[in-house]
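[step 3/7] inverse_fold.run input=structure_tokens len=94
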């Protein structure tokens, strides 16, 4: 089985939905589709931000670093991480 970033983000989304249901004490059937979609999209963007941060920090792959540079990768990864973290935090609170 190949474990890639899509699989990881899907598992993260399932974890977030499970955490949402246990914190609120509601069954899984009562979780709205909007909440599931927000968690899934936020988990995808969170994993993408971690990829951008790792590409910028470790300089891999080299062709990406040569084309874009280190700092744009780090700044865009940090911005995307902040946006997705805030979206997850907002959904957990509401």
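[step 3/7] decode complete -> sequence:
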């Amino acid at each position: 089985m190949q474990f890639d970033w899509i699989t990881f983000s899907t598992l993260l989304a399932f974890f977030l939905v499970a955490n949402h249901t246990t914190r609120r004490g509601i069954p899984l059937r009562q979780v709205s589709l909007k909440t599931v979609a927000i968690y899934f999209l936020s988990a995808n963007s969170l994993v993408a931000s971690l990829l951008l941060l790792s590409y910028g920090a470790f300089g891999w792959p080299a062709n990406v670093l040569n084309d874009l540079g280190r700092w744009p990768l780090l700044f865009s990864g940090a911005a995307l991480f902040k946006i997705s973290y805030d979206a997850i935090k907002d959904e957990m609170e509401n």
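[step 4/7] annotate
The two ends are 36 Å apart (CA to CA).
The mean pLDDT is 85.
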